[in-house]
Amino acid sequence: MTNIWEIGTDIGGTFTDIIAIRRDTSETRIAKVPSRAHAPVQAMLEAIEAVGLRKSDVKRFIHGTTRITNAIVEERLPKVALIATKGFEDVLEIGRYRRRDLYRLDIVPKAKSLVPRELCFALNERMTHDGRVLQALEEVEIERLVTWLKGTSAQSVAVSLLHAYANPAHEKMLAERLKDVVPYVSLSHEVNAEAREYERTSSTVFNAAAMPIAVEYLSELEERLPLGAGLQVFHSAGAMIPISAVKRRPLVMAMSGPAAGVSASVSIARQLGKSRVLTFDMGGTTTDVCLIVDGQAEMTDGKLLADRPLRQPMLAVHSIGAGGGSIVRAGAGGLTVGPESAGSEPGPACYGRGGNEPTITDANALLGYLNPATKLGDRIGIDLEAAAHAVQPIADRLGLSLMETALGIIKVANATMARALRRVTVERGIDGRDCTLLAFGGGGPMHAAGLADLYGITEIVVPAASSAFSALGCLTADFSFLQQQTLRAPLDGIDLAKVSERIHAMVALTLEPLLANGIAKSSIEVDLVALMRYAAQADAIPVPFTLPLDPDFLREQFLKKHRELFGYATTEPCVIESVRVQARQPSTTQVGRPGIDTRRTEFVPRKCSFDNAHDVMTDVIDRGTMSAVITGPAIIEDAWSTVVVPPGWQAAPDAGGNLYMTRVAA
């Protein structure tokens, strides 16, 4: 079997999921192992063993991870120094005028700066907005900076000079001089070559802080799994990227795990011919949702992480702290779930590993949805007594029975997740009730029907390998690299030659990582998107285009998109604010129906509780052998996942192992 397997892994907060595909036969294996927060590479090697493989069997290994995201959110970041143009060294401290909460004067109005004032250096240099040198960077100024840096203990430096997106010459000079002074240097024109000084600087600091974490982690992975070009990372824009590129821009790994699930969802949506799909990825720590329209996932220019802006092109995944391991609280305002999580160590109380806080998973266990006679992946059992012990104090405080409390926890969790769905539908002008809900992750199939009832969705698809779906997305995604850069080119009187020259230069730079990885230029496709706005607008709208540049086509498409989003369009002058270039090699990976280990126990009915139906004797169905339509209440199980089919719903399998769930006709 040597060197014929492709592997995708997703390192979550609770579990590390793995899916392996044999290159010559499309044989597919999946598994789960507990994540190791302090030894993620070891968890990945254990995952390879869990699917019965050795390192020598692996040809290609792609992984998504929450490691960088978690380090940012939990503020476990190394010390960073910031170098900024004189007069702009306080940009992070000033930030934007927005408050965290408009009406809460008792909380800090905004997050504190990632860089303390004593580690901010004001550099005498200046570029204009169109890239002309206003004040040259002198040698004496660089020497002053080097002397200052040697007196700090910072191991990473973020360089964010004014208008470096228009002319990065001064940043490149500093990079050359600082490479022997500090181990890690992050340049703003490489991280986010766009206007918006605060967002660009914040992103550059995030990238600088992530570099020591990422380089150490990826270097260990390269050493222990020496696959050369076959070792790749999934990035937040929904594709694979070579490790050499990630070491310069580790920020692309932020949100890479959820993005991988969306990537697999795009593939499924196209296969099934679904025009509007809502992804519902409920893991152990978070729930992630995204909108897919006509086979394309929504993209965004950035998001907030730890209340600070991270600006880079990424899939528009909305995350909330409501996963299976999210801790349940009973406060003055009632029940709340998350964002705190029991994680993988010790995990929910029902895992019997020392956890004693009540979680969503404990509520599911008490309601009978999890099989107490089996072990998740032959590793983790279900301890109903421990779950009851954890939830009972909340039941006592609310004056409810244990089952009523467990149902209440599930309702609150579903309501929290429904709000996330509204964020990616209603706020984008889409009626979510017309969408298909694609449910995956460890908890998605258990909550899908309840969430659909609450939101008004009538069709659910639970894909094959649903519990390792993000790992699958790592394998089925394209191999790509992406850049976005500010142009500020008005369509009226546009200099076509100059703008086209800049776009061609961006294309050449975007192709470089793929060509360096041995990919033939003939197999690479290039996608171009113009970020357009009216001259007086602040935010831009993405408009796909091709070369040669056609201003009339761009204007027509911009007005059409503006009408779709806002209901109107005007004849005001419009501007190409930025251009996004993505070079990609389309994936050719073929995935067969995953082989699921045969369960060692019989599938016997057990009592489950649903809304208005407590202690109902419920059929338990083996997903691997299921061939006919079943009507709820029922529980569908395999070695890695549980699908809850409540009363009023039915489920049917297709030839590819996907489950279709629909409401039963009245």
What does this structure look like?
There is one protein chain. By secondary structure, this protein is α+β, with helices and mostly antiparallel strands. The protein has 3 domains: 142 residues; 297 residues, no CATH class; 107 residues, Dna Ligase, domain 1 (2-Layer Sandwich). Strands 13, 14, 15, 18, 21, 22, 29, 32 and 33 form a 9-stranded mixed sheet that branches. A 6-stranded mixed sheet has the order 3-2-1-4-11-12. The model has no long low-confidence stretch (mean pLDDT 87). The protein is built from 16 helices and 33 strands. Strand 16 and strand 17 form a beta hairpin. It is globular and about 80 Å long.
What key attributes describe this structure?
666 residues; alpha+beta; Dna Ligase, domain 1; 30% helix
Outline:
By secondary structure, the protein is α+β, with helices and mostly antiparallel strands.
Quaternary organization: single chain
Number of domains: 3
**Structural class from helices and strands?**
alpha+beta
Unreliable runs: none
Distance between the termini: 53 Å
Largest sheet: 9 strands, mixed
Topology:
Elements lengths: L4 E7 L3 E8 L5 E7 L5 H11 L7 E8 L1 H7 L6 E6 L5 H4 L25 E4 L2 E2 L5 E3 L3 H12 L5 E5 L8 H10 L5 E4 H4 L5 H28 L6 E5 L3 E4 H6 L7 H17 L3 E7 L4 E7 L2 E2 L1 E7 L2 E8 L2 E3 L5 E6 L2 E8 L18 H7 L17 H15 L3 H23 L11 E5 L3 H12 L3 E4 L6 H8 L2 E12 L5 H21 L8 E10 L6 E5 L5 H16 L7 E12 L20 E5 L2 E10 L7 E2 L2 E4 L4 E4 L3 E5 L5 E5 L3
Parallel strand pairs: 1-4, 4-11, 5-6, 5-9, 9-10, 13-21, 21-22, 28-30
Antiparallel strand pairs: 1-2, 2-3, 7-8, 11-12, 13-14, 14-15, 14-18, 16-17, 19-20, 22-33, 23-26, 24-25, 24-26, 27-28, 29-32, 30-31, 32-33
Helix pairs in contact: 9-14, 10-11, 10-12, 11-12, 12-13
